[in-house]
Amino acid sequence: MVELNAAVALLGRFPALTGVDLRIEPGETVLLQGPNGAGKTTLLRLCAGLLAPESGSVTVLGHDLTTGPERRAVRRRVGLLGHSTGLYEDLTVAENVRFWARVAGLDAEPSVERVVGALQRLGLDDGLLDLPVHRLSAGQRRRTSLAALVVRRPELWLLDEPHAGLDQAGRNVVDTLIGDAVAAGGTVVVSSHELERVRSLSPRVVTLAGGTVHRDTNA
Amino acid sequence: MNRFLADARLVAAKDLRIEARSRVVLNQVAPFALLVLVLFGFALDADQRTLRAFAPGLFWVAVLLCALLAVQRSVSVEQADGALTGLRLSGMSPAALFVGKAAAVFVQLVVLEVLLTAGIIVLYGSEIEQPLLLVATGVLAAVAVACTGTLYGALASGLGVRETLLPILLLPVLAPVLIGATRAFDDALGNAAVDGWAWLGLLAVFAVVATAGGALAHGALVEE
Amino acid sequence: MTETMATNGTTTGSRGSRVLGAATLLGLATLLLFAFGLTEADIRLHPTTGEEIGQFDAVRLLYLHVPLAVFTYVAFVLCAFASAGYLIRRTPWFDTMAHAAAEVGTVFCGLVLVTGSIWGRPVWNTWWEWGDVRLMTTLVLFLMFTGYLALRRATVDPRAAARRGAVVALVAVLDLPLVNRSVEWWENRTLHQKSTLGELKIQDLTLFTLMLGFLVFGLVLAWLLLHRFRVGWLEREDAEHGIAADIAERRAAIDEGDVDAAVGEGT
Amino acid sequence: MTHLGYLIAGWGIALGTFAVYALSVVRRGRDPARRVPAERSRWLTAPGADAGNRG
Sorting pLDDT into bands at 50, 70 and 90, what band is D42? Predict the structure, then answer.
């Protein structure tokens, strides 16, 4: 599913990943933890095909990410939730989710149902649907952005701090969502400071430090 | 190909919808365009004959200044909250994204041109002698500016405070458009005995090269 | 600056580049001798009135200006080819060459504008001739490559800088014919362009000096390109070397206790 | 000689600029040249092999 060997990635000239060896099997749920700046975000972006590895090998969903075309091909199949929500301020919640669903290649009609379903599952009530995003709270934005991801049904979920900035209910929703993804046979990599929370979902914890895998409960 | 056009249309519609909601171009750039016309009037001493003689040049300088703002707005829409990352993750072809973004800028430029045309008629006393030439010039120049601007917007994006680079990068490249469109307008407004249609040919070449080249080159820039 | 460099690299020089440099300096001295000493001023008699016309001694600026102009275009075309090569092959050689050619070309281009302006003042009686196609084209080119260099300086990620630079260089060179054509039509409306060399009465020695100018400034271009390329190459190697060291340093600096404290795990 | 001022200005500015630029390039190369091992700067390992490096 995901296999990295001695993967090095640079941000500008800074070696954010200094040689990562990691293997994740299909259907697995992996928790990434580590100090700030350990490389969690970079690792997730690397697996999503947004970064080119400087050296080493990265294979995700059978794509060799050392080449540009393969990186482009893998992007469509993974779902990355990053720090920014990727929403357009001036469009409504429904328009945003629908736009991202259609960009992902889903047809317009079934996606409307899915959009509503996904939003409800995330605890966003119908009243919010026609509100422009700039009127939402941070938590509501994050849920909207998650909804846009859920609608796409990715094969590999890469969740970067999905609990950050959410209230108790919101964090519960995220857990439900991860549970759904796992139940549907998806593979989930999630970075989080909410150790207890995610540990109940996943027995495997990978600790990053200094841009490399410091500890792996599976190893 | 269908997929390409559908993606491009999706992006263009999204940008235009954002503009319809936020009205940044309509409420900020359009008044600026008219302001530029008025400022030229002050600077050139409010002699309507002079203004009329220079109307085509002033018109296109105003269009270029507005285009800079429109392109910057088009870039910032994607940059504000990491939407560009989402677009890259969608696997959409960079060429389709380019065409979509450029099309939205094009529509906004055409609206601004209509407004500016009204402006030079009212303020400078210009008279349209060849409407067809005028429209064709406006459309082709808008294509050329929108495509070049969108490509250079992608180039200058993500530089943080250094995004002020856009004008110095973009304006020299657009020199032929400025010259060509001004001369064609000279003919269309009956200002000078030049062959406006020949200039239109130059604009057409520029527009075609900018569209094709931009679509090709955009991949190399968005891929980052 | 003697033969110490072959073993320990302390400069961008090499035996080859030193020979080239010496030849360039020798050539420059010879060129000055010819341009100022051996050739004559451009003085002709007006066919009817008999008064003296021509460029007089200002013609001596052309032995400098014309070769510079030609090699500006050589450098920029080289930059465009290297940029295209980079977009196709994505190897650092092409990018380093494109950057070197752009920088050296911009220096040449700036000097073309300055020397042209200085020559134009006595001969055309104006510092700036709006009607001249080549002048306007060169100015636009200069502005585009100034932007190119500024863009490269502003981009932190070297790979992004390479890609963006390559696109700008290609656009600039592709835009050039359109700029040239538009200015040509534009100036035809009012003025007619003077052919600067055509009206000279070219004597053997004048022609020889001009050719010598081409040779010498070709050598100047080659020497500068060679060294600027090597600087770019070394800086990239140096940065990569630094990154390898940074990686080792980061990996060595991982502290068990710090990690545990950060992830909230006591022992 | 006529136009002497123009001649001196033109040639002086050009040659002066070249000299300054050439010096700056050489000086800019010194630091990295010292740090980068000789085998990584190909023209130094094979003296006189400039053509190979540039072609």
Answer: low
Instruction: List CB contacts (< 8 A) between B198 and chain C.
Output: 185
Residue C259 in contact with partner chain A when CB distance is under 8 A: yes
Residues C92, D2: Cα–Cα separation, whole Å? 50
Longest CA pairwise span in chain A (Å): 49
First to last CA, chain D: 45
Residues of C in Cβ contact (< 8 Å) with D34: 9-10
By three-state DSSP, how is residue A38 classified?
A: coil
How far is residue A37 CA from its own chain's centroid?
18
Q: Can you spell out the DSSP letters for A66-131?
A: TSHHHHHHHHTTEEEE-SS----TTSBHHHHHHHHHHHTT--HHHHHHHHHHHHHHTT--GGGTTS
Model confidence at C54, pLDDT cuts 50, 70, 90, reads low
B118 touches chain A (CB under 8 A): no
In whole angstroms, what is the distance from residue B158 CA to residue B155 CA? 8
Q: Does B26 reach chain A within 8 Å, measured CB to CB?
A: no
* C40-65 mean pLDDT: 74
Q: How many Cβ atoms are within 10 Å of A199's Cβ, its own excluded?
A: 15
Task: Name every residue in D having a CB less than 8 A away from some CB of C.
Answer: 1-4, 6-7, 9-11, 13-15, 17-18, 21-22, 25-26, 28-38, 40-41, 43-44, 47-51, 54
DSSP B5-69: HHHHHHHHHHHHHHHHHH-HIIIIIHHHHHHHHHHHHHHTTT-HHHHHHHHHHHHHHHHHHHHHH
pLDDT band at B2 (very low <50, low <70, confident <90, very high): confident
Confirm whether the ipTM is greater than 0.95. no
Q: What is the three-state SS of B139-177?
A: HHHHHHHHHHHHHHHHHHCCCHHHHHHHHHHHHHHCHHH
Q: Strands, E, within C91-134: which ranges?
A: none
Q: State if pTM tops 0.95.
A: no
Residue A153 · residue A117 · CB < 8 Å: no
For C182, which of B173, B202, B221 is closest by C-beta distance?
Answer: B202
CB-CB under 8 Å, A33 with C263: yes
Which position has the higher pLDDT, C142 or A197? C142
Contact D47 C16 (CB under 8 A): yes
**Most confident segment among A60-69, A123-132, C192-201:** A60-69
Confidence (pLDDT) at A185: 85
Please check the confidence at residue C18 and state whether its pLDDT lies above 80.
yes
Is C250 near chain A, with CB under 8 Å?
A: yes
